[in-house]
Amino acid sequence: MMYRLLFTSLILAGFCSFAAAQVPPAKHPDTSTDGWSNLFEPDLSDALYPKGIWTYKDGVLTATEDQTIWTKKDYDNFIIDLEFKTAEGTNSGVIVYDTDMDNWIPNSVEIQIADDYSGEWSKAAATWQCGAIFGRLAPTKSAVKKPGKWNHYTITCQDKHIWVMLNGEMVTEMDMSQWTSAKKNPDGSEIPSWLSNPLAEMPTHGHVGLQGKHAGAPIWFRNMKIKEIK
């Protein structure tokens, strides 16, 4: 009987853990509640970044070059809530689960930010458009606003599960364990060669980063919050 109860408890615990990981957020959160903290302090004292590139002024963070700003802290399960504004042609991203800041591209997961209205990015592969898990999973719809308007991102990372909500729409849901190849996505499409590590094998913790002025177009961030979850 003891073994049966133990077995049942383990099954239920596993089921509850699985079920919890399958519940996506229903709406953008209220970040004024307990548990939320700044992703970066206004003086950037808790950030790692090249000096002279990133500035945080009047509540808005931006960069003059294609350099990434990182949290000093290593995060495991968490929710990021922030706003971003694109310019014409913007290509940027929110980077999670990074374990190598010097070589972050193959050693992290990037949630894409892009000006889907531009000639270049509107014609790009869907896995390169706003809301995508870059190079791997396209969003179900384009929900980004036109350049010059503020957008709202809520990104939930719980173990190998990632959910992306953009402007009130759940646009992307990923189970990293399905990405067992470094060359092909589960649907058979090709993964860019520089994303050389299978997501299924990557750690589900690391630094959080924001990509700077990539592809010659700026990006702006504000109201950046993070909450650690179990």
Task: Walk me through what this model shows.
The chain has 230 residues and is mainly beta. The protein has one domain: Exo-inulinase, domain 1 (Jelly Rolls). It is 10% helix and 33% strand. It is built from 2 helices and 13 strands, in the order αββββββββαβββββ. The strands form 2 sheets. Strands 1, 3, 4, 6, 9, 10, 11 and 13 form an 8-stranded antiparallel β-sheet that branches. The longest helix has 20 residues. The N terminus is likely disordered.
**The CATH architecture:** Sandwich
| Strand element count | 13
> If helices are DSSP runs of H or I spanning 4 or more residues, what is the number of helices?
2
Q: Averaged pLDDT, please? A: 91
Q: What is the molecular shape?
A: globular
